[in-house]
Each structure stands twice: as structure tokens, then as C-alpha cells.
Amino acid sequence: MNQFSENFWREANVTVTGGASFIGSHLVDKLVSLGANVAVIDNLSSGKKENLSQSWEKIQFKKSDLEYITKSEIDTLFKDQEIVFHLAAIHGGRGFITKHPADVSSNFSIDHHVFEACMNTDVKNLVFASTACVYPTELQNEIGSDYKLKEDDSNPLKLDGYMSADIEYGWGKLMSEMQMHAFKKQYGLKGCPVRFVTAYGPRENETHAIIALIYKAIEKMDPFEIWGNGKQERDFTYVEDIVEGSILAGEKIFDGTPINLGTGRKYTINEVVNMICEIIKWKPNNFKFDTSKPVGALSRALDNSTAKELIGWEPRFTLKDGLKNTIEWYVQNHKKEGKVDETILLEHNN
Asked: What's the pTM?
């Protein structure tokens, strides 16, 4: 499982939009290690150049905002590219996307520009970073459910059937998957949506759940605040697993088939907090549960059987191992202040 075709990537011209971001930068590092010629397009609104320090001397960096760009400019950016990984988006954790509904809706126009440019420049394959938020929330409302979301639970090809998604961010991604299929039908665009679920790891910011919880623990927040009642369940997927699945999809899926990239295992937020506290060897005296904060779906995990069957992918990292790696990175890169700044849990902090 997770075996790459080095011949496929060696000397291939590959562009990563949003390549200075959390997931994007890890993807860039892996593609460089496989011998690809990598170009990064990013406007640095949430990404950081330092995320690319490992590969900076081996890549082309192009600062550009894909929302506000002319047709000729974007076609020039994508000229002679063979594979495009499209991760550029306005995004964040649950607090951020709940607070910025209009901002995240603009992802639809960003995606349109990228799809059109890939079509105009004859890109061989386009891997589109989608999300578990494309799935109906009614399938995720029962804590303790053993149901795993399947790709067909949200099928953008069923245009005459019922569809639903998770707030504006999820609707935008679902509509972009639909838009991607429209480009395939009309112009023959080749591509693959990969649906991420609660990705975490080094280089992530505090608007996302795992880093927010690590931040609170490192700052010894006591009482320790948990959004909701802590019983909400998630499928936490380590960034290296996400990257490997995305690359395998780029090698093997060209017909628009969506691929879930998740572990299929659910953990409650309370379980994650206890695991973090165990790793750092500290525990608060009290917990505070803030049920006024947004928590999203109550029980979410992805069925990954299609990924195993079609691209030979399965997650390699346990949650505990992924948390250890993430905490080690955060401790090395975070300056302790002895308090928690609530604003950075809702806004990007560049």
C-alpha cells in the first residue's frame, strides 16, 4: 500500500496552488523528494514562505491571488504543467469557516479560474482538495454511530436528486466538485476530487481543532476550555497520510471519481484532549465546556474502502503517533505566553 510510481513523478512539471499552506507545503516537500519540478502558487494570505523552507531552493514560487486574476495571467501560470494539485482556498477550522461564510463562498470563483486554466493549458490531471463537509449533516447527527460516510452519499453527478452539505464552506466545495464534472463533460478535463477530513499535523494554525487543543495545553489553560460538550466525534487524519493519498490519486484517478482520505476511526474531542495531556505530561484541574461555540457535525468518519481499492492507499499514522509529531513541532515553534489568546482560535495569525 501507498507505493508511488517514481517514474511518473520524476521530472514531471507539477503545480501546487496554495502550496505554502499547511497541507500544501507538506505536499510540495513530498513531490520534490519524488523528483518532480514543482511550482507553487500562493497569495500568502494564510500560507507562509517558511513552511517551504525545506524545498525553497528546489521550487518555483509564484505569488498570485487566483480569485482576482485575468484569464491570460492564469493561463501563463499553468502553461506547460502536467499535474496540478489545487489546494488554494479561503479556509480554516470550524470557528473560522462559521465566522466567514461570505469569504469561504468565494472559493467557487477561485476553483472556476483554476479549472478553466487547466482546461486551456491541457493539464494531464487535476487533483482538487475537497472536504468531508460536502456530506449531508443529517448523516452525522448521532453520537456513537458506527456509520462511515461513503463517496456516493454526496454524488455531484446526481443533478436531479437531493443533495446537502455542511454550511457554506461545504456547499462551496460540493458545487466546485459539480463544476469540475461540468468541465469534464464539456471539455474533457481530467481530474480527481480528494475529500479530506479533519487533517492535522505540523504547520497547521490554531483555528483548527487539534492545534487549538495543543495550544491550550501548552499554555496550561485551566480551566481548560472545550468547545461543545466534548463528545462530538471526528476522523482525525495525519497530514502525511493526506499527502500520500493525494499523490496516489494524481497518479491513478483521471475520471473525476471522488476519493475519501480518512482513517475510518472516530475519536471524541474529550479523548483527544486526554491523549494530548498524557503526551505532554500535564492535566488541568478543571474543564469548561462552552456549548455556545460552533462544533459542526456530531459524528463524522469517512469510509476509505474506495481509496484502498482504486489507489492502494491506507493511513499509516495512529492518532497518538500523529499527535506526538505535531506536539513536538508545536513546542519547538511556539513561544509560550502563559495565556490563551482567544482571537487566534477564530482568525489566521500570520
From this structure: 0.95
Q: Residues 62-69: contacts with CB within 8 Å, 24+ apart?
A: 66/17, 66/41, 66/110, 66/113, 66/114, 67/106, 67/109, 67/110, 67/113, 69/113
User: Does residue 275 contact residue 212 with C-beta atoms inside 8 Å?
Assistant: no
292 contacts: CB under 8 Å, gap ≥ 6 = none
Which grid cell sits at 161?
Answer: 436528486
Q: What is the pLDDT of residue 348?
A: 66
Nine-digit cell at 326? Answer: 505535531
Question: Cβ of 277: how many Cβ atoms within 10 Å?
Answer: 15
Separation CA 301–CA 153 (nearest Å): 13
Report the residue count for the chain.
350
8 Å CB contact between 36 and 10: yes
Closest of 125, 23, 107, 5 to residue 65, by C-alpha: 107
CB atoms within 10 A of CB 242: 24
C-alpha cell recorded at residue 91:
479556509
- Cα 136 to Cα 90, 131, 141, 163, distances in angstroms: 21, 12, 10, 7
What DSSP state is assigned to residue 173?
H
pLDDT in tens, 301-314: 999 999 999 999 99
